[in-house]
Structures are given as structure tokens and as C-alpha cells.
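Could you please consider the sequence and fold following this short note?
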Amino acid sequence: MKEKLAIILNQMADCLSAAQLKKLQKVLLRTLTADGRPKETVSNDRHCW
């Protein structure tokens, strides 16, 4: 998986700044590693005042 992330980041390096690349890396890692975890359903009432 790390190799695939490196390929994606290298392809995006021409378009994004260093900060944007770091954020993209974090989002990709969080999204791709979360697939095996059970997802919790949260209602909007829980987050609204």
C-alpha cells in the first residue's frame, strides 16, 4: 500500500504544495486503513446544539 501511496503523491506533486501533499497523505492513509474497521452511525442530533 505504501508504494501505491508514493505513486499517487508523486503524480500529485506537480499540482499541490508540500502542505497539501502532507494533508493528502494523511487523508489517504486514514481512509484506506479505516476500511477494515466497523463504522459507527451517528445521528445529526448528537452534533447539533
Residues 18-33 form the longest helix (16 residues). Helices lie at 2-12, 18-33.
